[in-house]
Specification:
Radius of gyration: 14 Å
Number of helices: 0
Structural class: mainly beta
Shape: elongated
Largest sheet: 7 strands, mixed
Distance between the termini: 37 Å
Order of helices and strands: EEEEEEEEEEE
Strand content: over 45%
């Protein structure tokens, strides 16, 4: 299983970025996909999730500004981020819940991509 993020970078407040995560795995075993972020010295926290039935969940700070989406084959999950704020500066991680050969669901993570919002 491999997850590779792209799309991070430096953007001014009020700007937009689109993060993308390419998934290399047996996509029939994926149950949920999502994005998390981590500020320095803090725990990794949920940003947005999308389930196998396409239900979505957003943390309060992401509602109305961020949009999570996936392609039909579960090969890619994206996060469109609009109206970015300095407090959105963090490392963003792609995440999937993946069923192993033994039937256990376990999380997998990408390597992270830095998003910096600054003027």
């Amino acid at each position: 299983v491999q997850l590779v993020e792209s799309g991070g970078g430096l953007v001014q407040p009020g700007g937009s970025l689109r993060l993308s995560c390419a998934v290399s795995a047996d996509t029939s075993r994926i149950s949920n996909m999502g994005w998390y972020r981590q500020h320095p010295g803090q725990e990794r926290k949920i940003v947005a999730l999308i389930a196998s039935d396409d239900r979505t969940y957003y943390e309060d700070f992401a509602k109305g500004r961020f949009t999570i989406a996936r392609d039909g084959d579960w090969n890619t999950v994206s996060l469109q981020m609009n109206n970015l704020r300095p407090e959105d500066t963090a490392v963003y991680y792609c995440h999937i819940d993946y069923e192993s050969d033994r039937g256990f669901v376990q999380p997998y993570w990408g390597q992270g991509t830095q998003v910096t919002v600054s003027s």
